[in-house]
Fold this protein.
Amino acid sequence: MTFTKLLTSAAMAIGLASAAVAGSHAEKTKVGFIYVGPVGDGGWTYEHDQGRKAVVEAYGDKVETVYQENVPEGADAVRAITQMALTGADIIFTTSFGYMDPTIEVAAKFPDVKFEHATGYKRADNVSTYSARFYEGRAIQGHIAGKMTKTNKIGYIASFPIPEVIRGINAAYIHAKKVNPDVEFSIIWAYTWFDPAKEADAARALIENGADVVLQHTDSTAPQAAAAEAGGVITFGQASDMGEYAPMPRVSSIIDNWGPYYVQQVGRVMDGTWESVDTWDGIAPGMVGIGEISDAVPADVKAEALAMKDAIAAGEYHPFTGPLKKQDGSDWLAAGETASDGDLLGMGFYVEGLTGDVPN
Amino acid sequence: MDLSSINPILLVASLMVSATPILFAAIGELVVEKAGVLNLGVEGMMITGAVVGFAVAVNTDSPLPGFAAAALAAGVLSLSFGILTQYLLSNQVATGLGLTLVGLGLSSLIGKPYEGMKSPTLPDLHIPGISEIPVVGPMLFQHDIMVYVSIALVAGVWGFLKYSRLGLVLRAVGESHDAAHALGYKVVRVRMAAIFFGGACAGLGGAYLSLVRVPQWTEGMTAGAGWIALAIVVFASWRPWRVLIGAYLFGGVTVLQLNLQAAGAKVPVEILSMSPYLITILVLVVISARGAHGAPASLGRSFHASH
């Protein structure tokens, strides 16, 4: 065999191979997911992975899903997302706020790949954003917490000072205060989404400082375990039902339900109708679920909580309804006025009555 | 600001609990490094200990067998690192990083059925007499047994390295494996034993996380504790008591800053959450400023009798 012949056949083989790759590419839609924690966190990432499984269930052999866990927010995310785009993903869901700039950056380099970024606000022709109105669930939690606290101290484990988290604190506080004017919030910023040991320590610190309700905006079930150990403290499941801690300490939960949205968006990629959209759904379409309110909650409080849930779902009640003032005493919403989505998405302030400063 | 809601007794008690996992892992790694081996797989061994300890404790409904199994499992895992680096002369840094990845993957596989389960609790010891001393009793003498085991381990390692003949041999191996070999000491065997001890300690630290400090099994729950332990060994300049100070400082400032936040202290949160890292490094650097405190001279170097 001459050298040229060898080269020709090698070139042909490469050609065939790439054709085969392109062929299989056309058959299967490849869907990628970038996760901030492990799929077994029992909270946030667990629910995104349930959404991924819903996509597999809906489309079977027509899709191939891949995911990467524990991707740090920041520069390393660029590498992970780029890697996923290079391996032929058609659509990539980046499922944490801190992936916002990395997603935009990578999306500019891969115009043919569709990107979906969770909880952010930056979009592009090939980048959609989606989020859930968790604050609707927080309002219900605040109501239950305000009614049930005996020490009038409610602890709150916050993750990062971003609008989504601040919104949750405000929504919970407004509704706790409404039913219990003496209520106080202690807020701990953990600066992590997932670190069970630190989350447990934070829960313990809150409980030792007198809190008998612990709300969390971090992803693991560790605060539930710490509260169970302390006894007499109530908690709420975050992102996932965390039902293994019911009926006490976990008395209810906010459940993120991403499945229907993921199935819909992957379907749009398959039939070519995908376009950049901004989705922000709440209790009404089912993106935010309220986990079963356990028997540890008195019947009348449970009934009020469920009535609030129905009112929010029906669009009769908005958790941010005036009169409301900002922490510095300036007016925010007049009586009867409801907050605009723009205000909510960029929220960087506490409402009147909360103590401490929002970290920068 | 009102800090009266912080109870100093509870604070000291919880800082000891918070520091114990890192202390276990760090004192084990200290012995490994003193023998001249750099094992970066602490995180992987810790999480293996966490999951195995939790699984065994749940199945036997008793935490102590869990701790024993955790030490054994992580020790055996560390031997794979030992065989690769000591007999097959692989690169220690790369193999250690590999060990971390293996540990993380293996633990999530083993741990799947245990997610959301509750573990049996380790009872606190009440030592008659000293447990009842006001203030000091509840601070220091009402902990579970593993807290005391960790402190005893530090004392044991210190005594072993400083006063025993075997400790001298181990240090010789770590300083100059060629000289130790020329004197007839079994360099590879000493190192294998040190690696196993380090693995077992990391396993105990992991089990303490999953059985006492959190207490539950969650995938990836060590969340970087192994790397903190590694850093503390370096900043403590390879001295056992300084490792104890480092671990307690780190655990203490972590708990303290969370308590300050909970009490509503008027200190910027950014500074509070940085403080465990800053203060631990600062203090250890200052106390290590004087005297000889270099790394063991053969740290990270492969040994083969033919060289």
Q: What stands out?
A: The CA atoms of residues 113 and 263 of chain B lie 38 Å apart. The domain at 21-118+143-230 of chain B is CATH 1.10.3470.10 (ABC transporter involved in vitamin B12 uptake, BtuC). Chain B touches chain A through 41 residues (CB under 8 Å). Chain B has twelve helices and no strands.
